[in-house]
Structure to design on (430 residues):
């Protein structure tokens, strides 16, 4: 059994790929596939087989040579590694169109992420109830509500100008991880995990492909 | 000068990192920084200096040993490589909360991506005008409108069940690149570039960090 210390040196890109493998394996499990050859899994994930073997090797030995991977076993192992064998509690700041879309997004709950609290500063919104059931709290109550509900991940969907303030609120309340949709680089103390969602980075990939494809 | 053929073998992760470098360099240019040491640029981007050198080496020689990189020059070179020295025309299918958030998102235009057409199937929406000025067209008119407007990138923000149909429409109209926000794997013919935006992959990274950080 490898130690946690060893785990913490895993490259971030490997963690991202594990997440992608888990999505592919879930789809396979739903199709009732029991065993999958390593090259078939690779094809399904759009990642080459050597890379998959290398990524999994950080965590132990998986699969049987000449046979492949047991779908359910590998899936539950990856979920354990990623910490997905529990439901993570999230709070959202910013109930605009993006915030509403996030709260309603079917994928979060399916993947083990649940919005347990939502916040805004707009007096026209605070106190109202979303179709999904959550009452919109004022950001001034973030600290209290986050502690009451045991929020673990803060999600920021405010305009750029209000994102740093939202981050300060989360930091002050003891939240250690932030998913940031606002188009700014947040300043956070050491030990905070921040992931930025920037849609335009994905578009740059497409632009590059289109540019390369031109005759 | 290296050839296009050479370019097309660049790893996708390198392209994604170039995109991140361009964001950092833009911020530096705005702060009126002329030259930046390679380790400072690395720090700003959150990527190690050796990786930056390796990524840039695919495209030529950049920076001056012991001095650093010229911010504006490197930025415009990366933008040229990525194909960002033009504005890309996008069309959106699915005017729900997410679609509205995307059309209003300040970052797209800033980065050279413009929504020139939007589509939905809801009779209550079709024919109405968005605050940003676009008229919502019916998806049945996608082929005609996409050709008229010269759309290059299709963006899908429909529910999962309607995304494949939206993809078929784009494919039929000759669009060669799709940004997909729906939580399904799209089936597309060879030669199509598809990028999927899955917010939960970012959350998995946070969950992993939180799991590792536990005492």
């Amino acid at each position: 059994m490898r130690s946690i210390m060893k785990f913490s040196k895993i490259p971030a890109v490997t963690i991202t790929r594990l997440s992608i493998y888990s999505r592919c394996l879930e789809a396979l499990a739903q199709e009732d596939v029991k065993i999958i050859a390593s090259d078939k899994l690779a094809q399904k994930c759009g990642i080459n087989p050597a890379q998959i073997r290398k990524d999994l090797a950080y965590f132990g030995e998986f699969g049987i040579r000449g046979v492949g991977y047991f779908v359910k076993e590998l899936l539950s192992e990856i979920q354990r590694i990623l910490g997905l064998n529990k439901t993570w509690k999230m709070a959202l700041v910013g109930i605009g169109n993006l915030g509403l879309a996030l709260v309603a997004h079917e994928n979060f709950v399916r993947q083990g992420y649940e919005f347990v609290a939502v916040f805004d500063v707009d007096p026209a919104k605070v106190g109202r109830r979303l179709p999904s059931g959550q009452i919109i709290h004022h950001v001034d109550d973030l600290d209290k509500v986050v502690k009451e509900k045991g929020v673990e991940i803060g999600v920021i969907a405010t305009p750029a100008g209000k994102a740093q303030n939202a981050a300060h609120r989360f930091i002050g309340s003891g939240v250690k991880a932030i998913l940031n949709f606002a188009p700014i680089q947040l300043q956070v103390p050491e030990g905070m995990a921040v992931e930025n969602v920037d849609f335009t980075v994905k578009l740059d990939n497409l632009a590059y492909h289109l540019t390369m494809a031109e005759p």
